[in-house]
Amino acid sequence: MCGLEAYADASIGSLGIEFRKRVTIGVELAAKPTLLLFLDEPTSGLDSQSAWAIMAFLRNLANNGQAILCTIHQPSADLFQVFDRLLLLRKGGQTVYFGDLGHNATTLIHYFEKNGARHCEPTENPAEFMLDVIGAGATATSEQDWHAIWKRSSEAVETQEELESIHKDGRSRPPVEATIHSEFATPWVHQLKELCFRDTRAHWRSPTYLMAKLVLNIFGGLFIGFTFFKAKNTQQGTQNQLFAVYMATILSAPLSNQLMVPFLEMRKIYEIRERPSRMFSWTALVTSQFLADLPWNILGSSIFFLCWYWTVAFDTSRAGFTYLMLGVTFPLYYTSLAMGVAAMAPSAEISALLFSVLFSFILTFNGVLQPFRELGWWKWMYHVSPYTYLIEALLGQALGHHAIRCSPVELVTLTPPSGQTCGSYLDTYISHAGGYVTNPSATSACEFCAFATTDQFLENNFNIFYSNHWRDFGIMIGYIIFNIAAIYLLTYWFRIRTGSILGSLKARLSRKS
């Protein structure tokens, strides 16, 4: 009916003015207006052909039972004939005429002529004639008070009697039982499906957004990978692999800031246009935003993993769990976290500021920059930070249960007591503290390495345990569920409910100003 079948997959910005107006009308129709469809000058900005196409479209809607209230400015004679009835107001909002137009506006013309107006020529536009008669034209004046004439006219009396009859009949009828019990025209699942299609198309039509996401992951993976290229199984190599994992988690900061912008833009459109029209539920909007962004974030993290994992020379046999954490769980977490922060922010600038503050705490207290045993009073933040468990799962699985072979510069040289070998001299210490001796049978210049396995290195220095990786995976899933719940709760609390926090704050500031 809207004549948009051929443009179903087109971007709105690529459409002409006529088809944009058709889309706008279609959006209002999709909301199923309860009484009538109101249009304010739908032909403005259109050429004569496009204006006629829009009015013919509205005529078709009216013929199919849709009540339409439409304002129009200086219509041509052809456009004027499309209308059934006219409410003509003069300056000040006073009624001059209300009633049927008739064929070729003969009813309207007859009303003015019988009340003292000049004769309307057959070639004259009835719309221009009526404006000229009541003195509403550019240079027209009127000596008659057409508002007073209307109030005394038989047409006004008939209109008033019709209104009273409608009121009387309405009061005598039993209440009409509502047949539509839902707030929206379609079920929630259908709303979600259509919104997911819309948001996915919006991302696909924004190549800059997608390319920035993918290029950042590719560049970040290669940069970190080649910074710690082919890390060896020495103490320094293990330390390099540890920081390769830590730096990989930092990449979530720019990715999170990027995805908050379209989330806030779509929310703004919803609040201005789609929520008042009751097109769909806000929960469907939030869910579709999350589901539409998530596949691209998982794809980006997967590309990052391929560029990063084998470049740093992690164990190939451990790649599966590491990908599960970094390629799937990690984007799930930062996507839900970023949208949760954006849900309570009024703008992209504020959301970026809030996220930066929150992310600094998450990143600082995960036990890498400042080991757990040196945190002091802030140890509680170590247990609260989700990156504590993300990094432990990644490091414990990627590095755990491997041998460490110290390089010559990492060995400590000791001299055993006379008559003892290096192995017998350091055996008791090694059994308690760990490490190994490269020359256990030597009786001088013992070469001692402080760590024999990566487990000793991670446990003693960073409180990271290989055996906790599945536990950490479960904890991260818990954080993700918490973040997703926070998206809905914060959106409702700050944007949806009556008397929301931001709305109350804006009202107070406006009263003070």
UniProtKB/TrEMBL annotation:
Q: Which residues form the ABC transporter family G domain?
A: 73-135
Q: How does it sit in the membrane?
A: Multi-pass membrane protein
Q: Which UniProt keywords apply?
A: Membrane, Transmembrane, Transmembrane helix, Transport
All copies of the ABC-2 type transporter transmembrane domain together span 191-396
All copies of the CDR ABC transporter domain together span 453-495
**Nucleotide-binding: is it a keyword of this entry?**
no
Bilayer-crossing residues are 210-231, 243-264, 285-311, 323-345, 352-372, 473-494
One GO molecular function term of this record is: ATP binding
Highest taxon, organism lineage? Eukaryota
Chief location bin: membrane
Q: Where located?
A: Membrane
Q: Which residues form a coiled coil?
A: none
GO cellular component annotations of the record: membrane
User: Which InterPro entries would you find in this protein's record?
Assistant: ABC2_TM, ABCG_dom, P-loop_NTPase, PDR_CDR_ABC
Could you identify this protein by its name?
A: Brefeldin A resistance protein
What organism does the UniProt record list as the source? Asterophora parasitica
Q: What is the lineage of its organism?
A: Eukaryota, Fungi, Dikarya, Basidiomycota, Agaricomycotina
